[in-house]
Amino acid sequence: MSCVSNLERDERVIELQHVALEHQGRPILTDVNFSVDRGEFVYLVGPTGSGKTTILKLILFESRPTRGVVVAGDCDSQSIRKADIPYLRRRMGVVFQNYKLLRDRTVFENVALALEVTGAKRSIIKRNTLSILTEVDLLHKRDAYPDQLSGGEQQRVAIARALVNNPLVLLADEPTANLDPETTDQVMAIFSKITARGTSVIMATHDTALVTKYPRRTLRLVDGRIEESHVKSKK
Amino acid sequence: MSLWLALREAFRGFWRTGMVGLISVATIGASLLMVGVFGQVVAGGYALVKQLRERIEVDVYIKEGVPQRQILALQHTIEGVSGVAEVQFIDKETASKEFQNMFGSGMLDALSQNPLPVSLRVRLHPEPDMSTQIQAVTKLVSDRDIVENVAVGESWVDALDRFVKIITGVGLLLGGVLCLACGFAVSNTAKLMVLVQRDAIEIMRLVGATLTTVRLTFLLGGALQGFMGGMIASFGLSYALDWWMSQMPDFGMTAPLNLGFWMVFLGTLLGIIGSWASLNRVLNALSIK
């Protein structure tokens, strides 16, 4: 039986135990330990090159740790079957700094793609896509192409694509790095809303001002290890 | 797995390859058309040889004054030889009529009596190894006292047979080279399709597309090119046959085994194989796992 099927059961959504990763003999992560519960918002902070994106890739099972284990529900990096990884990713949403939208597709098509790969029915794809576009306030732009949108709008499209499958966890890699303060507020408001609904958010950022403005549990990456700050977690 | 999604992405990928994709389709079309024309010529050649073989006869001429009883006995003996389809007794009158039909009556009329001998006309089943059967019949009858002469006309058919075999060999060689060219063209276009669709693949993988869906997208892309190339070849061949029929109505060539269908089938198959050959390498190179 697939390890993905029991994903919704556990309160603990993601856990990294003594995770180390080397790339071409150079240590990126040395001993990373943390867990994220359902509906929790967690910052992953550290300077550029500290390994934030690497941790997100490990959680996505895009790469495997050299030592230690990454756990998502009943799935773990040591035993997960390659064939299960796509199904696990359908329960995770990903948002990038550079949005990663497809320029030759409309807003609707970009968002719908995440449902199409699951083999969902067309009626469900249409309904859920329109619903999530309404939620991120982009329904009126559904037929626009990414190049016709502002940076903030493009990021909201990327968030809509990440959320349209109703994921258990949203992984956001510097999602506000290219946004102005007002648009950043909009994005953070969306994240707050989805954590309230039970979706966990792991947000990698090097923006300490943002962390100060929206205080949440913060995991700081220092020399390949996690130092947890004492900011109280807000769900 | 979403077949519809893979098909749509295949069309999109092909569209985005632009001129390279079209050149690939044209290469497949031209190559398959040449394979088809060669196939048609070879098939026509075989049909011609078969027809000619059906007409091959061994004429066993009987000496003057041999009793009919002995001739009939020889006829039964020949009928027992493997590969013999029919043995026909030709009496002097029948031989005379046939001669007159072929050459007119003037020559025989000048003679006081019919000089044409009685004969047994042996027809054989049209099989590839007819010369062995002919030799068997010849050997059986040539030593008989009642036999005057044995006439065989297979040598020119054997020459034609050899010619068709050479053409077949050349056709197979050329066909193989052209099929490789098709595969190479599709393989290169498949690589380009992967590159132009790289962002789409990466995003599809991140949102949970299985590798099967991604692979299927590009295999369908290759199949699409091959199919279109096959259609071009099929229409081209049909046009060429019509032209041939209008120019050479007496040498009719019909497409054997629905050649148009096989052109499309072969094109599609080559498209899939060409994509498959390059896909794993390109996906690995792009770290798409």
Written account of the structure:
The complex is a heterodimer of chains A (235) and B (289). Chain A has helices at residues 52-59, 85-89, 107-116, 122-135, 151-163, 181-196, 208-213, and strands at residues 12-23, 26-37, 41-45, 67-72, 75-76, 92-96, 169-173, 200-205, 217-222, 225-228. With 235 residues, chain A is an alpha/beta fold. The model of chain A has no long low-confidence stretch (mean pLDDT 90). Chain B is an alpha+beta fold and 289 residues long. Helix content of chain B is 72%, strand content 9%. Chain B has helices at 3-17, 19-54, 68-79, 92-103, 106-109, 130-142, 155-196, 198-206, 211-247, 259-285, and strands at 57-62, 84-90, 119-124, 147-152. Chain B has a 4-stranded antiparallel β-sheet with strand order 2-3-1-4. In chain B, helix 2 (19-54) crosses helix 9. The two termini of chain B are 16 Å apart. The model of chain B has no long low-confidence stretch (mean pLDDT 80). Chains A and B meet through helix 2 and helix 3 of A and helix 1 and helix 8 of B.
Strand order, main sheet of chain A: write it out: 6-7-8-3-9-10
- Given helix and strand content, the structural type of chain B is alpha+beta
Oligomer: heterodimer
| Series of secondary-structure elements of chain B, N-terminal to C-terminal | HHEHEHHEHEHHHH
SSE blueprint and pairings:
The complex is a heterodimer of chains A (235) and B (289).
Chain A: E1 12-23, E2 26-37, E3 41-45, H1 52-59, E4 67-72, E5 75-76, H2 85-89, E6 92-96, H3 107-116, H4 122-135, H5 151-163, E7 169-173, H6 181-196, E8 200-205, H7 208-213, E9 217-222, E10 225-228
Parallel strand pairs in A: 3-8, 3-9, 6-7, 7-8
Antiparallel strand pairs in A: 1-2, 1-4, 4-5, 9-10
Chain B: H1 3-17, H2 19-54, E1 57-62, H3 68-79, E2 84-90, H4 92-103, H5 106-109, E3 119-124, H6 130-142, E4 147-152, H7 155-196, H8 198-206, H9 211-247, H10 259-285
Antiparallel strand pairs in B: 1-3, 1-4, 2-3
Helix pairs in contact in B: 1-2, 1-7, 1-9, 2-7, 2-9, 2-10, 7-9, 7-10, 9-10
